[in-house]
Structure formats: structure tokens, C-alpha cells
């Protein structure tokens, strides 16, 4: 219940043309190469919110602030942080 802040990180397996390049190895380990191609990040985000709705929070309409990133990684996964935002009395 109440407004929520979401931080989402999608770590995607890199294509071979990226993972085979020697100079990319450290950047892949550091997970700092952004994914700038489809699928669109908002599609990932919406699918994740829909899967968490009714379980992690009541409705994805509660998300008032979000920080979302999509990066290549040798360890594909999704990281999710959800926090309740402090409400101001009006």
C-alpha cells in the first residue's frame, strides 16, 4: 500500500560478436555495456511489473519512481529493489 520506488536491472546474455572481442571481457565482467537494441526496455519493465502485481505489491500503479537499466552480462538475471516511499501528510 502506498507509493513505491522501483530499481530494476536487466542483465542480458551478450551476443557472440560482443563476447568474443577480447577488449570487451572486462566490461562484461563489470556489467557496464548497455543494451541499445530490442526488445524495448519498457516491454521488459511492464512484463516484470505485471508478474509481481498482487504478489510483491497490490498494483503496478503504485510505482511512483523507477530507475531501470539493461546491460550485457555473462551472468544473465534480473535484479529488483522495491521500496516504500515516505508519504507527506497534506
UniProtKB/TrEMBL annotation:
GO terms for molecular function: magnesium ion binding. One of its GO terms (biological process) is DNA recombination. It comes from the Bacteria. InterPro entries: Endonuclease_RusA-like (IPR008822), RusA-like_sf (IPR036614). This is RusA family crossover junction endodeoxyribonuclease.
Amino acid at each position: 500500500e502506498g507509493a513505491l520506488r522501483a530499481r530494476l536491472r536487466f542483465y542480458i546474455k551478450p551476443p557472440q560478436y560482443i563476447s568474443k572481442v577480447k577488449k570487451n571481457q572486462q566490461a562484461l565482467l563489470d556489467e557496464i555495456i548497455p543494451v541499445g537494441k530490442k526488445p524495448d526496455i519498457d516491454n521488459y519493465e511492464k512484463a516484470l511489473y505485471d508478474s509481481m502485481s498482487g504478489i510483491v505489491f497490490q498494483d503496478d500503479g503504485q510505482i511512483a519512481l523507477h530507475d531501470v537499466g539493461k546491460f550485457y552480462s555473462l551472468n544473465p538475471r534480473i535484479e529488483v529493489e522495491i521500496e516504500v516511499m515516505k508519504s507527506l501528510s497534506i
